[in-house]
Amino acid sequence: MPIIHVNDIDISVETQGDPRDPAILLIVGLGMQLVSWPESFCDALVQRGFYLIRFDNRDSGLSTKLHHLGKPNTFLAVLKMALRMKLGAGYLLDDMAADAIGVLDALQIEQAHILGVSMGGMIAQIVAARYPQRTLSLTSIMSTSGRRGLPGPTRAARKVLFAATPDPLNHARVIDHYVHTMQVIGSPAYPTPRDVLHGRISRTVKRNLEPTGTTRQLLAIGASGDRVELLKTIRVPTMVVHGRDDPLVPIAGGRDTARLIMNAVMHEIDGMGHDLPDALSDRFGELIAEHCRAADEISLALERA
Predict the structure, then answer these.
(1) Domain spans of the chain?
(2) Mean of all residue pLDDT scores within the chain
(3) Which DSSP category does 80 fall into?
(4) CB-based burial of residue 294 (10 Å sphere; 0-12 exposed, 13-18 middle, 19+ buried)?
(5) I need a labelling partner for 13 at 20 to 30 A (CA). Which of 102, 108, 123, 285 fits?
(6) CA 51, CA 68: separation in Å to the nearest integer?
(7) Percent of the chain having pLDDT more than 70?
């Protein structure tokens, strides 16, 4: 697993598939790591002829932790976000989008399909808007435009999202904490068995645990504001995927994203929450493959014109 140096930080990267195939850059969500992508999801895309690039965002996984930015006050940050007060952050989502482009640069990939989930969807939207020459297509999954006034998390989702993380030295309690979180925000129609969740989360916790970094990422979301005007500038082929039963980022956020991006295609999935359940991996694979192939055909036609 290589470590690449971009934007004065180190980023952990992993690839899967044949590098001769079209590339898909996968951008994870808040506090997630590159190993957080379900294997079934990744396998579905590789089997359909794509080269996957996964990486740890700054402040997560094995990438650089920006400890010099300090330990944010989570309660105060959440309160300011709720009141729409100005937030101070050490970096913005735009900086994280620049990291994503830095990954492509390091791998010498000129263009890629950009796919992000949740916070990663926000970053992917910025990549598509700011770096259209590097973006073959955009897929925004369970994300939002950030528009003021959109519905927020349910009470249960908000409670687990902002619950205090147990002592990091007590891995068993930390793992149980995150298993419970995923059970609350996951897909009601496609629940992931507890033992599977436990195995996945155990792997990520043992690989790295950085709750302070997650809070700095949360500050970056709040300080970056909405992307309403930015989304209107996106011209690359765009697909928005969202679960109708998402308790963390309600489907209104996905609908608003699709409405703002010219010619965006929206896919709403019944019973899907804020996760990528194995039961939907083939469906995700088909949707994404069809979307990316159509975008490749458009790109090829423009080159020939």
Answers:
(1) 3-304
(2) 94
(3) H
(4) middle
(5) 285
(6) 35
(7) 96
Report how far apart, in Å, the C-alpha atoms of 18 and of each of 34, 210, 288 are. Answer: 18, 32, 17
Place of tokens 């896919």: 267
What is the predicted pLDDT for the residue at 271? 98
Q: Which of 181, 116, 180, 173 is nearest to 143 (CA)?
A: 116
Q: What are the Cα distances from residue 267, in Å, to 45, 206, 207, 272?
A: 18, 35, 34, 11
What mean pLDDT is predicted for residues 83-100?
Answer: 88
- Work out the number of other CB atoms within 10 angstroms of the CB of residue 296: 16
Residue in this structure with the two tokens 């409670």, named with its chain if needed: 159
Pairing of strands 9-16, 23-27: unpaired
**Residue whose structure tokens are 């927020």:** 152
User: Per-residue pLDDT for 138 more than 90?
Assistant: yes
Q: Is the pLDDT of residue 44 over 90?
A: yes
Please give the order of strands across the beta sheet that includes 112-117.
Answer: 3-6, 9-16, 51-55, 23-27, 112-117, 135-141, 238-243, 265-269
Helix residue ranges per DSSP H, 83-210? 93-106, 119-130, 155-161, 171-185, 194-207
Residues 6+ apart with CB under 8 A from 176: none
Instruction: Tally the residues of the chain.
Output: 305
Residue 136 has pLDDT above 70, yes or no: yes
Distances (CA, A) of 169 to 172, 205, 220, 224: 9, 10, 26, 32
Separation in Å, CA 234 to CA 125, 135, 228: 8, 10, 11
Average the pLDDT over 40-50 and give the result: 98
Q: What class, spelled out in words, does domain 3-304 have in CATH?
A: alpha beta
Phi-psi domain of 125 (left: phi exceeds 0; alpha: psi -120 through 50; beta: other): alpha
305 has a pLDDT exceeding 70: no
